[in-house]
Amino acid sequence: MTTTKIMLKEEDIPRQWYNLAADLPSPLQPLLGPDGKPITPDMLTAVFPMNLIEQEVSQERWIDIPEEVLKILYRWRPTPLRRAVYLEEHLKTPARIYYKDESLSPPGSHKPNTSVAQAWYNKQFGIERLTTETGAGQWGSALAFACKLLGLECKVFMVRISFNQKPFRKLMMQTWDANCVSSPSEETKAGRDILEKMPDTSGSLGIAISEAIEAAVTDETGKTRYSLGSVLNHVLLHQTIIGLEAKKQLESIGEKMPDVVIGCAGGGSNFAGLAFPFVLDKINGAEVDIIPVEPEACPTMTQGPFSYDHGDTAKMTPLLPMHSLGHTFVPPPIHAGGLRYHGMAPLVSQLIVEGLLKPRAYHQLKCYELALLWAHTEGAITAPETSHAVACAVDEAEKAREEGKEKVILLNYSGHGLMDLTGYESYLSGQLTDYSLPQEELSKYQEALKDLPKPDLKKTGKW
Amino acid sequence: MTTTKIMLKEEDIPRQWYNLAADLPSPLQPLLGPDGKPITPDMLTAVFPMNLIEQEVSQERWIDIPEEVLKILYRWRPTPLRRAVYLEEHLKTPARIYYKDESLSPPGSHKPNTSVAQAWYNKQFGIERLTTETGAGQWGSALAFACKLLGLECKVFMVRISFNQKPFRKLMMQTWDANCVSSPSEETKAGRDILEKMPDTSGSLGIAISEAIEAAVTDETGKTRYSLGSVLNHVLLHQTIIGLEAKKQLESIGEKMPDVVIGCAGGGSNFAGLAFPFVLDKINGAEVDIIPVEPEACPTMTQGPFSYDHGDTAKMTPLLPMHSLGHTFVPPPIHAGGLRYHGMAPLVSQLIVEGLLKPRAYHQLKCYELALLWAHTEGAITAPETSHAVACAVDEAEKAREEGKEKVILLNYSGHGLMDLTGYESYLSGQLTDYSLPQEELSKYQEALKDLPKPDLKKTGKW
Fold this sequence. Notes:
Two copies of one chain form a homodimer. Chain A is an alpha/beta fold.
């Protein structure tokens, strides 16, 4: 019988994260301040603790995972690597499809891999309280979980429309004792200003980020910092345990190097977590297609230029070197809330520019169609974000069948969809729509990038 | 470091179910027909396939698990046995608390252990379609999942109030292609009769059972049968894989025989699944307290007499020998919907009469309080049913501390609470109430038992 579940023993868990910054063909580009000049690490200390800032700018290839972080990760890690034999049978493909099951963490996604690490480093630094923003609530619930286990307070600014319409992830956060408020709120100047001008606003991630950063930097005790769930280097670093485990698991059954590695990408963290250890192989000459998948409704990698841009609508963050649709871009309301971001992690963006990744975009209707096929064959109900990776894996498996090639396909199963069933309801009742963004509309938002600096990959950064 | 997750290799999965009927000190009592006489297996053939009826009446100690059933169970089995070290630390108890994590199946509970087996046996028998009822939706979603994987149609009659108020488990069923209708429905005579008399009824499990049985027995193709998620012998049998795995896992780390074994009990299946293999040890002389836990609001085992009674309000089912609060009893609306049943599995009931089990009842406020403690220490959000087992385990761990005894406590973590967060919301907002049932009220319902036959454990049954 084919083993469909490849486990890894606790004692074989990776003990170091892999830092891709050490192996980037082009130098890691710095963040820029409002004056267009590289910012220095100490300019970030009001926002992040110095131990995480050091990770953010580190060029060390391997970074030790603290034992106490591992101890918490052991609750659900190592995660199983599963083989999708039932999907393979259905597709009649010669490809072998493996998926790394990150849905088994208590909050239900890959996010706790970094929320636990971030909470631990903050605690080490003497921080007692973290603030963050959340859209649909995946990240907010992961940070609430980590803070509770480590004894930190957690404050989450949740985009108002989700706060009102998606009560369940808010309830998860409250069950883990987080203080979750609707954003814009009366608790920050940024929130009050917006409420005065637009009392009926449905809120946005941009506003929530502004509120969370303000709440961190204005806390007079100095014991509060801000935490981000994707995009930044240290966040992607913490996720590399996914790909490092998957490599060991494939080796343990004598499987060859994957031909295709796939992850969905909103800010880039679950994709990077699986893919970066394989990017290293590709840099060293291995033949592997590495595919980050995004929604057609938010085509950052496939249609956004590589530019410096702000991480938020309100321009509170430094300028990041990244593929971006422009910080004023508001994506259509697709169900994959975690993929509705105008930018992309700088490390992922640089790899695209270097030609090491092959980004691809899918419509949500196709993603739901294949998420249903997944539920009917593999049995599990997929998060709407993850369904983008599933859709791409199915395409690659069908291509392998047409080519008659015995390919190995590896995807990141980043989360379950049990808290996102309303998307399935829309699909099943025929009410789900696709969004096509005309070039003129995309161009309009990219106007905002015109006056911003352009990264030069030939130039060494100043980190 | 203490290992908190005890795995079992796929090849070490139990290959036989344990049938407690072979070891019952008193003979297995027969079901009775409307005439008060034991019914014969062939009288059940319109409702169940003969291969499952044979299991229902079997006295064989070990029954082989078909390879094809195992192949599906492998998707999430063997499940981890976890040690609750963080809860232990918090309680400062010398007890070692282990929990068998049945929440990892795609539908999120132990229910698929039997839904997969039942769907498989029905398919073997040439059946093409299963009907069932569901309250909150745990069982309905588990049967929908199993039917989809095995290519059977699935029809679920869901109690109207849950159908309207709890859309998420309904959406899970629909995602797995089940036809889920609100009960009472226009599709059965039983449903139409009720709708005519009480168009505004909120429905009940009793009505839904009547509809599901009617839909099975009246199907003219002869290819439809009914499926039940608890209570019956064959259902409990399929769950014993839980306890058999747990035993192997405890042995694999050199742990001693548990001093206390705990499971919540509504119809009895998750409790029996963990406990029956340990009941065998107890029958053979081992010292172990085996505790089924029920809600104070539905105190079947602690306050209901052992009697013959109907399984449903409408008296469609045969008479079962069981602890019962009376088939007209309607439990108060506690959040643990899976524990709101007036009866108890005959096998569990007989063990109680034999003095082999020590049933206990808890109020839901205490259960939620300790479910929160669990979320804050162990990290996972517990189903409201499972929180009854958690509450009892905490009590036992505190008792061990007071007695200064190094006890081993084992509980069944039967499901996660991600689809049940509204109960947490009520608790956190201070709106949750306890229900105390005055003796007069309980006595009123037990009037219905007065004229029914009483089982005589000294008498051999006629199965």
